[in-house]
Design brief:
Alpha-Beta Plaits, 2 domains, single chain, 5 strands, alpha/beta
Length: 164
């Protein structure tokens, strides 16, 4: 038994079906791969817009012509709190030049701003930026710092993203 002869019209019809099938599958695959990314982008941009309406970025508290060198010490058991405080103070205009973690014996409940270079007004700015921290004078002429901020357990990071 032999196969019936293949007509040119059948070949063209099969070729068109294959091309249509490839286009449909290609479109479905492409849409399936990129649709979640588009949806994620739509969701995050909507959330970012709504959070931008709720929380306003802080105004710079340090004058443009002043450079206040600050050291931030995480004096808590919470990992990353010093990093958040560093980003927050930099947004406020402070020049954070050093960060670190306090030894376990020196953990604190409240935030403390130490005056190192004798500028009480700069310490007041930092205390205000940190939400009303206590200020103490502990001069240290061996350090190239103006202030040391010991971040305590009671300090809460701002309710917004620091770097959008």
């Amino acid at each position: 038994m032999t196969a019936p002869p293949v007509r040119a019209a059948d070949v063209v019809r099969r070729r068109r079906r294959r091309i249509a099938l490839i286009l449909v599958l290609g479109t479905a695959t492409t849409t399936g791969l990129f649709l979640p990314r588009r949806l994620r982008h739509a969701v995050t941009s909507t959330n970012a817009d709504s959070s931008a309406k709720k929380a306003v970025r802080p105004a710079r508290v340090v004058p443009e012509s002043v450079r206040i060198k600050v050291e931030v010490i995480n004096a808590t058991d919470t990992r990353g709190l010093g990093r958040l405080a560093t980003a927050w103070l930099r947004d406020q205009g402070f020049d954070v030049v050093a960060t670190g973690t306090a030894p376990e014996a020196e953990r604190r409940d409240s935030t403390l701003v130490l005056i190192r270079s004798g500028h009480a007004d700069w310490a007041a700015l930092a205390a205000t930026a940190m939400g009303g921290a206590r200020v103490e004078s502990r001069p240290d002429s061996l350090r190239y710092l103006d202030l040391t901020v010991l971040v305590g357990r009671s300090w809460r990071a701002p309710p917004q993203t620091l770097y959008p």
